Amino acid sequence: QGFAFLGRLAPEKGCVLLARAARGLEAPLSFVGEGPMREAIMASHPQAHVTGWMTPESARAQLRHCRALVLPSLWYEAQGLVVSEAAAMGVPAIVSDGCAAREAVIDNVTGLWFRSGSESDLRAKLRRLHEDPAFAASLGAAAFEHYWRDPPTLERHVGRLEEVYRLVLAS
Length: 171
Hints:
This protein is an alpha/beta fold.
């Protein structure tokens, strides 16, 4: 079991940071996606596997069989669905503490946070899960339980969004 990144291979996504951090760990690393950083990823970690875009079913299968999802974003981007999708399958996530995905991960419970932009801290988190599969499994089990205890619904999302709009309009 290795690690996976799912998304656009763009500079702000931190793909090259992940490739450099994972180099030498002897853990499989897959990048599911396509983008301008493909060559830089391969130059940074020649053993990494870049799949290109996959069907949603194939991407979920890839994710289901990894030790952890890694979201090394270098900027504060909106919360994507991939962390929640991983949690729903019992896969923990390692996320940058400088992105919105941090809100979906309870550090050391459902996944791990690393210092945004820190190759050494990301490497330490990858190494910890690579060398301690029982810990990784416990994070995945907690992520699964936490997700399914109160799974997101469209109605709740729309309700929260409407509340934000009401607050903004009221001020």
